[in-house]
Amino acid sequence: MINQTYLVTGGTTGIGLATAQLLSAEGAKVIVTGRNPATLAAARQQLPAGTVVLRSDSGSLTDAQALGTEVQKHAGRLAGAFLNAGTAQFGPFETMTPQHYDDLFNVNVRGLFFQLQSLLPLLANPSTVVLNASIAAELGFPATSLYSATKAAVVSLGKSLAVELAPRGIRLNTLSPGPIKTPIYAKLGLPAEAQPGFEEHMASQSLFKRFGEPGEVARLARFLLSADSSYIIGENLTIDGGARLT
Ligand SMILES: NC(=O)c1ccc[n+]([C@@H]2O[C@H](COP(=O)([O-])OP(=O)(O)OC[C@H]3O[C@@H](n4cnc5c(N)ncnc54)[C@H](OP(=O)(O)O)[C@@H]3O)[C@@H](O)[C@H]2O)c1
Fold it and tell me: Which atom of ligand 1 is nearest to the CA of 133?
């Protein structure tokens, strides 16, 4: 990974930030994206000098389609990309609005799809792509219908795009985290009084009775991005502390 360039979308907090930090520690040059000015500024402080922190809204089709051009200003070639940026809004089926629908699908599916399309000319041969889905894609949870549907779309894209991009030397895989302790839980739109109980419930789903740490997912992302996983392609690897079994 030394001196190679990797892109991490949604690299300003949580899993993406931990992955950017790990890749940087291994000598990679890292480019991260985010949208929120406050977290973009905080990430500039937390990531090593030389890291490129770009504002690019995954929910904007214009930004998604321009990502390749923006990245090219900082790197001629990418050794890999972790398409990780994502958003979650939970709530009972009858409370979900067309706005929720558009917000979730535009960021988690449309953004990811057109970001990858715009990055294609930059991806080296060979290179790696990792998509961040969720165990929610394959399980039934109450109040996560739209979020889970977006992640099921990501898992599906992970299979078809792995096949389609393999002849170009791009090795694409997906990872599916379970409950990981990140700022995403504060952004779900849950009533404040429900928040602690919900987080406790999520942690209890794991066979370890704890949340996963962002660094634990970062190590899986690093594995899939690197040559250590050279014969793994089109896979969807779960990292959930066994939560899918409970
Ligand atoms: N934590 C979990 O339990 C869990 C479980 C399964 C899957 N995941 C998936 O893991 C990924 C990372 O989530 P996380 O848990 O690390 O949450 P997080 O800390 O909230 O990180 C989300 C990242 O995505 C960025 N992002 C969100 N919306 C964006 C947009 N419209 N444009 C650009 N960047 C945007 C955020 O940047 P801003 O601060 O600028 O918004 C942030 O950098 C997501 O795809 C999530 O669905 C998480």
Answer: 7
6 counts as catalytic? no
SS3 category, 128: strand
| DSSP code of residue 32 | E
Domain span at residue 117 reads 5-245
**Running along the chain, 246 residues long, what does each successive block of 10 average in pLDDT?**
95 98 98 98 97 98 98 98 98 97 98 99 98 97 95 98 98 98 94 89 96 98 98 98 96
Contact status, residue 94 vs residue 45, Cβ threshold 8 Å: no
pLDDT of residue 138: 96
Residues with beta carbon inside 6 Å of ligand 1? 10-16, 33-36, 39, 57-59, 84-88, 107, 132, 134, 177, 179-180, 182-184, 187
Strand partners for 172: 129
220: nearest Cα among 200, 196, 241:
241
| Alpha carbons 225 and 237: distance in angstroms, whole number | 13
What's the CA gap between 123 and 119, in Å, rounded? 6
Per-residue pLDDT, 192: 87
Using CA atoms, how far apart are residues 202 and 242, in angstroms rounded to an integer? Answer: 12
Distance in Å, CA 54 to ligand 1 centroid: 15
For ligand 1, mutation pick of 19, 32, 35 (most atoms within 8 Å of CB)? 35
Total domains, the chain: 1
pTM of the predicted model as reported, rounded to 2 decimal places? 0.98
Question: What's the gap in Å between 199 CA and the centre of ligand 1?
Answer: 16
Q: What share of the chain is helix, strand, coil (3-state, %, to 5)?
A: 50, 20, 30
Write the CATH number for 127: 3.40.50.720
